[in-house]
# Entry
Amino acid sequence: MAWSYYIYYRVDAAQTGACAAAVRKLLAAIRDRTGIRGRVLKKRNEPLLWMEIYEPVMDEAQFEWELAEAVAASGINALLQTGSARHVECFAE
# Structure
């Protein structure tokens, strides 16, 4: 079964440039490690709410391992709004 991962979070307004760089690093790491080309979206009328999308994910355990490693290496968690966190949702057809 193929899975689609949707990961959303709120970026600190003072860190949008640094967060954009961290997301590029994260997406590149995931692409290099898994072959999955992720993308990032920003919510209309709420530009600090970002969402990463990864699909299709065939091996969710391996993907989640690689994602955790890439997130830690990117430093993205330090760039989120105070009290915010990355929320992961996973869906299949």
Remarks:
- The mean pLDDT is 97.
